[in-house]
Amino acid sequence: MIIKKTGYHGLYFPELNISLDGYHPDAEAVFVSHAHADHMPRNRSAHVTATSPTLDFMRLRGFRGTSTSVQFGEKISLDSADVTLFPAGHILGSAMIYLEYDGGTLLYTGDYRTPPSPASEGFDAPDNVDILITEATFALPIYKWRSYDELTEEIHNFVLDSLNEGYTPILLAYNLGKAQELMHLLAPLNHPLMIHGAGFKLCPVYEKHGIDLGNYSAYNHEECKDKILITPSSALSKGFASNLSKTRIAYCSGWAANESRRTQLTVDKMIPISDHLDFFELIRFCKELSPKKVYITHTPNPDVVQHYLTNEKIDSAFLNFETAGEDG
User: Fold this and answer.
1) How far apart are the first and last CA of the chain?
2) Pair 105, 96: CB distance under 8 Å
3) What average pLDDT does the structure give for the chain?
């Protein structure tokens, strides 16, 4: 199977005439796994196929092309292959893309999370595949996630302790996916929450698809005291909550599991919550599917993953993409 790169993390399969997460002018069809910027085609006027939430997010983020909405489990028959989307558990609408073609099967994961994010449609996958193209964002054994119950308790304790001691809690999270996941986990507290404006405009898509985001509003500089605040870290240098004298900041990302990040950030709490799967789930998933070939993407160093896969007698190779992303 010939695999060509196109755009950020996009792929083009000339034998199938299909493009995934990237535009190619010769492609019969362009499928998009989810609406993070590094997975959206650079051609914002193309015709794409994706889930309904992904298309909603893409339009809110500047996509101007035409589209076909598909449901999870719905088989799309093209000239060269049948295509089915499986829920990826990464963010709302995120999909793994399964290709059935003459001579084999292929699963492209995009970004995925198992166990799935509670602010997603869950996780499901084919029973087996010939070729697996998998992300490996967290490609070292130091990345092993705790359960969502434990993480939720840690987030609740950070927020409530801060409020009880007169501090305004600020949770650092990117605007699509992680922010809404945190809001969903905090919803049972029913405490007023404010989210950065860029994330706020994406929240109605979550509510449209039945995800409870709690008691929230758009960030207001003059009224943010004693609210739970959620913002990307980049906003702090632009004056976000700069009028508050007592704040506590938590960095919410899988990268928080790496202690070296603590020295790079001025925060009060590191909460290792990710919408990607951890290292051990990655290896388990590869073993479970038992593909003939694994292609590893989205990682600065695939060597450790390849070492583990070799021990499991699974053939693997590295597909090197440009580094560009907003998630962790």
Assistant:
1) 30
2) no
3) 94
